[in-house]
Amino acid sequence: MVRYAPCNAVLSPVYLCYRDLDLTCGFLQADKLRTQQQLEQLQARFVGTGHADTTKFEWTSNIHRDSYASYVGHPPLLSYMALGLNEPAAKLRTRLIEVRLSRIFKRVTAIIDHKS
C-alpha cells in the first residue's frame, strides 16, 4: 500500500489514525453488494435497464423507444431538432411518432406471420 505524507514533515494526528487502515477489504465488499442491490432494484422497476438475458435486439429496441419518447416528450429538444432539420416542430413530432409506430407495427406483423 502506498502511503502519502503531508507536504510538511509534521504528521497530523488524523494522518496517524488513518494511515494504517487497510481500505481494500471491508469497504469495497460493502460497496459491491450495495451496487448489486441497487442494480437489481433498478432492473425490477424499469423495463429498459435490461438484465443478464437481454438480447441485443431487445436492448436496441429499448434504446430506440426511449429516444423517440424523449424527443417527442421534451418540446425544447423537439424545437432544436426541428430548427436543425428546417422543418416545423409539429410536422417533425408527427413524423417521429409515425416512425415509432411503424416499427412497432412491423414487429407485431412479423410475430403474427411467424405464428401462423
TrEMBL record:
This is Splicing factor subunit. PANTHER family: SPLICING FACTOR 3B SUBUNIT 5 (PTHR20978:SF0). It comes from the Eukaryota. Pfam families: SF3b10. One of its GO terms (biological process) is mRNA splicing, via spliceosome. InterPro entries: SF3b5/RDS3-10. GO terms for cellular component: precatalytic spliceosome; U2 snRNP. It comes from Arthrobotrys oligospora (strain ATCC 24927 / CBS 115.81 / DSM 1491) (Nematode-trapping fungus).
